[in-house]
Write a structure and sequence with these properties.
It is a single chain. This protein starts with a helix and ends with a helix. It has helices at residues 3-42, 46-82. It has one domain (3-82). The protein has two helices and no strands.
Length: 83
Amino acid sequence: MNYRTLLVCTFTLLFFSPLIQASTACQDKQQDILREISYAKKHHNQRRIDGLNKALAEVRSRCREESHRNNLSGEKHKTTHAR
């Protein structure tokens, strides 16, 4: 593997690593909330279910916004370096 290929691979990993981590963090949060909803349903705790559903909606909304922001910043990054 030559130096240029190694440099490109390293740059690519460093650039996309935070995007992947953010996505994983969102998925982890959603999984945690879904698990808690399951527990609340088993115990017929409707107030808890309602609160967790609200929290899940907020997490999903934030993750979509974050993903959209990351996509926009990636596009800006591509256009600035393409010049």
